[in-house]
Design goal:
11 strands; 9-stranded mixed β-sheet; alpha/beta
């Protein structure tokens, strides 16, 4: 089947792995996400993933309560690796060849992230999970997603969230919220729309890398995105 994007980076929040729980990892939800990823992988799309860690530990929240920011961010990076292992196991149960690569050296658990090696894995049709953020504090996993996508020459960043696009206000709290079908990078930056942090959006803008924001909870969403269907919100 003809697809619009041949190499994509999917950004998942840690909260996406919780399901209906308040924290932690829901095996059923992880399995469901793995099935969505397998669907696009089976259509000859090269897939890289960056995953957050907010379902286990969010660095910014403890920092606001007085914890050292560097230590808090390091704990958050380790949380993303735990999530990466869970997602790798779910994909391999579906017989999807997967490589977990981390920005923090952890040889017994995962490969170190090396750009050329990651690209080679993609060329061999392996799903690459990039965990550990950027490996440095003060940078979010959104920024890690934009950075990795640029490095591996992905053609799009797919921000898979809990809402079906970008709104001018929180659609859960405000039913009159207006959804955007298309936005420019400067629209996002000037209006401070909270789809990704400003560093990530700026990096995508500098490299002319489009961002598509879509609802992961709707089955088949990733498949529709790679086919080029008008779904979610595109930032370009």
């Amino acid at each position: 089947m003809k697809v619009k994007f041949k190499r994509v980076l999917v950004k998942l929040s840690g909260e996406a792995l919780m399901g209906n729980a308040q924290y932690g990892i829901s095996p059923e939800t992880v399995s469901s996400i793995a099935e969505e990823i397998k669907q696009i992988h089976d259509n000859d799309v090269e897939v890289a993933l960056v995953i957050g860690g907010g379902n286990i530990f969010r660095g910014l929240a403890p920092y606001a309560r007085g914890m050292d920011r560097v230590a808090a961010d390091q704990m958050g990076m380790l949380a993303t690796i735990i999530n990466g292992i869970a997602l790798q196991q779910a994909l391999e149960k579906l017989e999807v060849d997967t490589r977990l690569m981390t920005a923090i050296s952890m040889h017994d658990v995962a490969e170190p992230y090396i750009r050329r090696r990651a690209i080679r894995h993609l060329e061999k049709k392996r799903v690459v999970i990039c965990a550990g953020g950027t490996g440095s504090p003060y940078f979010t996993t959104d920024t890690a997603a934009a950075l990795r996508a640029t490095e591996i020459k992905a053609t799009v960043v797919i921000k898979a969230t809990k809402v079906d696009g970008v709104y001018d206000m929180d659609p859960v709290l405000y039913p009159q919220a207006k959804k955007f079908d298309k936005l420019s990078y400067m629209d996002v930056l000037n209006q401070c729309l909270q789809i990704m942090d400003m560093t990530a959006v700026s990096l995508c803008r500098e490299n002319n890398l489009p961002i598509i924001v879509c609802d992961l909870k709707q089955k088949g969403t990733l498949f529709k995105v790679i086919r080029g269907e008008p779904i979610g919100t595109i930032v370009s």
